[in-house]
Amino acid sequence: MTDPWNRKRKIQLNFRVSEKEYNRIRAKMKEAGVISLSSYLRKMALDGYIVSLDLSDIRQMVRLLSYCSNNLNQYAKKANASGNIYREDIEDLKRTQSELWEQTREILKKLSCL
């Protein structure tokens, strides 16, 4: 079938959205200064992007924070009970803190590339 209007774009795409989604699309169009819905949707489909984050590094960091906090509480209890602080405990805290800082630097490095 030939296009009587001799259009450059011959393939039509259709999809449905909720009223809430439609209002968000319109708000984003207005924010971007775009008037044509089809131009906006075409531009977003071709050049837009979806950010998908791997949060395993952050989960590891939260695990280390939890470990460090729990150990610190235990060391404080020991110190309060006995009046002594053990060198091994302090070294363990320093090692964990060092791991936390390294993990934080790695996460920030990855985030800066987004």
Secondary-structure content class: mainly alpha
Query: Taking Cα atoms only, what radius of gyration do you get, to the nearest Å?
Result: 27 Å
Identify the overall geometry.
Answer: rod-shaped
- Could you list the spans in which at least 5 consecutive residues all have pLDDT below 50? none
Number of separate domains: 2
Q: Estimate percent helicity.
A: 55-70%
- Calculate the mean pLDDT score and round it: 87
Tally of strands: 0
SS summary, helix count: 4
Strand content: under 5%
Largest sheet: none
Order of helices and strands: HHHH
C-alpha termini separation? 45 Å
Describe the protein's architecture and organization:
This protein has 114 residues and is mostly helical. The chain has two domains: 8-49; 56-112. The chain is built from four helices and no strands. The chain has helices at residues 19-32, 37-47, 56-82, 87-112. The longest helix is centred in the middle third of the chain and has 27 residues, at 56-82. The relative contact order is 0.07.
Summarize the SSE layout with pairings.
Blueprint: H1 19-32, H2 37-47, H3 56-82, H4 87-112
Helix pairs in contact: 3-4
